[in-house]
Write a structure and sequence with these properties.
Strand order of the largest sheet: 1-2-3-4
Shape: elongated
Strand content: 15-25%
Radius of gyration: 19 Å
Distance between the termini: 43 Å
Number of strands: 8
Order of helices and strands: EEEEEEHEEHHH
Largest sheet: 4 strands, antiparallel
Number of helices: 4
Helix content: 40-55%
């Protein structure tokens, strides 16, 4: 997932999170920024006037739902919240959590794919189609693994 934000009197910020890992990286003018060793491991960004701002993502998982960052202690929303129907589509594959470890694996992979799809600027129809496809693929894969495991037991 990629979220862009223009900081006042400063550079364009690009936050990229891993599709499955959730690890966040900050890019300024295309260059990956390293975190500091301070508490919370914030990034330091130099503004046009030479001053620095401390930037932090408090909770990467809520960042997926409503991207917010903290700039020098002040919380800033940098992208829209997901709509209710997008959340329903994203969480649909979580039904596989009842299928044990294999179900959880397929459900979580599909969940993160769906979050990525809904955060992109696709049309509503394309978002619905891709998330339904992702969820269907997770369900199909889970059932195929279940059939294979059951056939090996017999």
């Amino acid at each position: 997932m990629e979220v862009r934000y223009k900081i006042e009197n400063g550079p364009d910020l690009v936050f990229k999170t891993g599709l499955l890992s959730g690890a966040a990286n900050l890019f300024v003018n295309g260059i990956k920024q390293e975190r500091t060793k301070e508490k919370g491991k914030p990034w330091k960004v130099t503004l046009n006037d030479g001053s620095q701002k401390s930037i932090l993502i408090k909770n990467i998982y809520s960042f997926l739902y409503e991207p917010k960052i903290t700039i020098d202690g002040k919380e800033v929303t940098i992208d829209r919240k997901l709509a209710w129907w997008e959340l329903v589509l994203c969480f649909a594959p979580m039904i596989l959590l009842i299928g044990g470890a294999v179900g959880a694996l397929f459900g979580l992979v599909s969940f993160f794919i769906n979050i990525h799809v809904c955060r992109n600027n696709y049309s509503t129809i394309k978002k619905i189609g891709l998330t339904v496809l992702s969820t269907a693929a997770a369900l199909f894969s889970y059932f195929m693994i279940a059939v294979i495991i059951n056939s090996l037991r017999a």
